Amino acid sequence: MKRISNLFLCLVLAVGAAAYAQETMNKTVSGRVISSSAFDLVVQTDAGTRLNLVMDSATSKPAIVSEGDQVTVVYHALDTGGFQAVQVVEGTEAAAPAKPGGTTTRTLTNTGTPGTNGQTGESRSTVVGTTGGYQAPAKPMQPNDPNRAMETTTDSTMGTTAAAPMNDTMDKSADTMDTNHTMANDTMANDKMANDTMASKNTMANDTSLPQTASPEPAVFVFGLLALGAAALLMRQRTTH
Amino acid sequence: MLISPSEAIRSGARSFERALFLVAFLALGYVSWVELDRLAYQRIETVRLATAAKNAVSQGLTPASHERKPAASEVIGRLTIPTAEIDAIVAEGVDDPLLNRAIGHIPNTALPGESGNVALAGHRDTFFRGLAKLKLADPIQLVTTDGTYDYLVEDLRIVEPTEIGVLAPGSSPTLTLVTCYPFHYIGAAPQRYIVRAREVRRPAAVRLAPNVDLDRL
Question: What pTM did the predictor assign?
Fold first, then answer.
């Protein structure tokens, strides 16, 4: 009985660890730098997609990253919808490969009339089926509304959720930069820059990724069931002895 | 007064057992609450949508939804996909609370009846669970107070979350459904499953309320 209880506890821990590992998967992309600052890196990937990345003091990167440089970036998705650069390396190969979990596995299902799969590099997509009438545009979506950037910055649905963690990251980065005297010591200037960067990131979070549509319910449900099972086993063990 | 080691162990086990029961109660309670909230929202909004459609028909009103952007969480219509057993309310926005209750219309994409690409997002483990069953040429219906819009699936694909090009408007009115992929995955899935459908049989006067399919509401 004791063994079964222990097994249950191990299972609970394993499920939690697996879920955490899945959320922290890294991916690698290569492309040319369009712009870079202390907190931002915008890369035009080899596949033609524009990728906006957030950097902080933990990001490993060369001393100077200039516009037009060919770089390879190891990054992971943030819960808020943006992307965090983990490592930036000049050239076409990252020094440390991404975690194996970061590679993409594709499963073909529901195959109708097969379509083409011409995407390379970052723009990896799998055509499950197509009637041939539609090809996904390579370029990022053009906003329908010319004022969209400004509106999405203040959008209460996504902008607000993206703001808090990014603010934390920027505060930490700003602190580090102050210490190293790599930026002007003027606090007002730092604050203004942080605000500007945050505004651009809120816009970026809306513009550069599709909405995340995972609900926590299944994981919470499984967790609850396991806890209930473990508690029932413990109670049974206690009452029988 | 000294406590024997065996008693201490028993007492610790009892505390742990209570903690586990509490965790189980909270976790299962949360899931039940979200589930009930979703059911209630769907029921209430279905009735409201039907009432709004009936009023529009009886008063012969021309809906003005195309002239303004819907407010956050405002109900847009009802999505029905028989093959995938999907029948749910669509509301404006893609924030977490809304996606727990309804299918979300991605802001700044076209609205039903407009010429662009109507993009909708839903949880893969609730409303869009059935998307995996969808095949090419399967029918999709979007019922709004403006009218009923029919679509046929023309493309199914798996993309990276950064490939927002799938939301770009095409040459003809389209509907794009977005959900996370793989379908059976715990946590934030790394990819997105995209269903693209083209509009068919658009009513000649789409914006006239009599086109509303009241039976569907």
Answer: 0.55
First to last CA, chain A: 11
- Residue-level pLDDT, tens digit, chain A, 241 residues: 556 666 666 665 665 555 545 444 677 888 888 877 766 788 887 777 777 777 776 677 777 777 788 888 888 776 555 677 888 888 765 544 444 333 333 333 333 333 333 333 444 567 777 665 555 444 444 434 433 333 333 333 333 333 333 344 444 444 444 444 444 444 444 444 444 444 333 333 355 788 888 788 888 999 999 999 999 998 888 888 6
Measured between beta carbons, which residues in chain A are less than 8 angstroms from residue B107?
152, 155, 157-158, 206
When CB atoms are compared, the residue of B123, B157, B174 closest to A214 is B123
Q: Which positions 107-166 of A are in contact with B (Cβ < 8 Å)?
A: 107, 109-110, 112-113, 115, 122-131, 133-134, 136-145, 148, 151-152, 155-158, 161
Task: Dump strand ranges (E) for A95-216.
Answer: 125-130
Task: Tokens 């060369």: give the residue.
Answer: A62
Tell me whether 0.85 is exceeded by the ipTM: no
Rounded distance between C-alpha atoms, residue A149 and residue B210, angstroms: 37
Contact yes or no for A27/A75 (Cβ under 8 A): yes
**Cβ contact, residue pair A208, B162, below 8 Å:** yes
Q: How many residues does chain A have?
A: 241
Contacts 24+ apart (CB under 8 A), A154-157: A155/A202, A155/A206, A155/B107, A156/B72, A156/B95, A157/B72, A157/B93, A157/B94, A157/B95, A157/B98, A157/B107
* Closest to B89 (Cα-Cα) out of B34, B146, B48, B133: B48
Give B-chain residues touching A52 at CB under 8 angstroms: none
